[in-house]
Amino acid sequence: MRGCTRARSATVAPVSATAAKRALITGVTGQDGSYLAELLLGHGYTVIGVVRRSSTLNFERIAHIQDRITLVPADLLDEVSLIEVLRDHQPTEVYNLAAQSFVQTSWSQPVLTGETTALGVTRILDAIRIVDPEIRFYQASSSEMFGKVHEVPQKETTPFYPRSPYGVAKVYGHWITVNYRESYDLHATSGMLFNHESPRRGLEFVTRKVSHGVARIACGLDDKLALGNLDSQRDWGYAADYVRAMWLMLQQDEPADYVVATGETHSVRELCELAFAAAGLDWEQHVVVDERFLRPAEVDLLVGDATKAHETLGWRREVDFPHLVETMVEADLDLVRAQLG
Ligand code: NAP
Ligand code: F7E
Known about the structure:
The protein is an alpha/beta fold. It has a domain at 22-199 and 237-263 and 303-314: NAD(P)-binding Rossmann-like Domain (Rossmann fold, 3-Layer(aba) Sandwich). The protein has helices at residues 31-42, 79-89, 103-108, 110-131, 165-184, 206-218, 239-250, 268-278, 307-313, 321-340; strands at residues 22-26, 46-51, 70-73, 93-96, 136-142, 187-193, 196-197, 225-227, 233-234, 237-238, 257-260, 266-267, 287-289.
């Protein structure tokens, strides 16, 4: 249990003896991109990160490794820019992590979500096909593709039933990856990852919204935290564990599809109980339900079966849910305390 105290620092994975390779990451400024860049640097890779044009820099998540990676301008909406970065930097592996990734926004911006999260995958696959079909490709697919689930737990063969424009776009991204694998013999792999979180998660996602909200309440800045569906259940893992699975997938001789999950599911209510308790607070005194955060269609129960990833990749998660929540609350307590001076 912690109050509004203490400081904490980020760590970078140790350098290993893996032969030098060149990896290009789209979405390097995002949560997963930052952890993957750290992991690949630790394995001795040359890392090239794609950043899109913005009026202000948003390199917070990669500031600690920025001098060790090459940042190049390109956009998933612009195929020529992708062709040029592949020609200029000649990666051996491409990790496509860029997307409009917030499910709620996909209802208010469905066309943008489709352009980026669906057609963006075709643009990068086409760029690979044109520039160098030997490049190994990772597509960041999602448990949101299972949506209104056909079976519990969900595995690689579970039929899709997406419940949001985001989920629909990810289904397209998955199938175009499979199609380019089969049509052009690309080493194209689809990782169907269940929710994964960290202190670097965007503030709009529920885990970070809760951990940051708890920190603000613990530090006396707020009293209430407004949330949506408290009964919704997710299979939540730790992002640094999940990027390890991405890398392992591209080290396999054959491309394939893999589910990555913890196999446990927890409700938003349980998340609140744990997070508030980590700061010595009672969640029922502070959480209020606000219908603005309810969704037009919900995915009620996601839980994944990662047997294939365990057996083929040798992947295992290292951080469990209570530890993840506690770590996020601690990091946000430190953040809010630092902001207060
Ligand atoms: P995130 O934090 O939202 O990062 C998304 C990244 O995509 C950011 O770097 C963003 O750049 C970039 N991006 C957005 N539009 C772009 C465009 N048009 N061109 C180039 N880059 C663009 O997402 P994340 O949580 O790291 O997730 C990584 C990937 O995994 C996403 O594809 C997501 O859909 C998928 N996924 C995530 C989870 C999860 O639980 N985290 C689970 C399954 C799948 P800016 O910084 O400039 O905005
Ligand atoms: O919502 C419920 C909400 O926004 C989780 C993305 O990374 O994982 C993520 O998508 C659950 C939902 O993530 C609030 O209704 C309740 O049931 O944190 P989230 P998500 O929609 O599961 C998948 C795998 C991805 O691929 C996506 O890119 O929590 N919930 N109250 C809330 N959610 C939010 N955001 N805010 C609330 O106030």
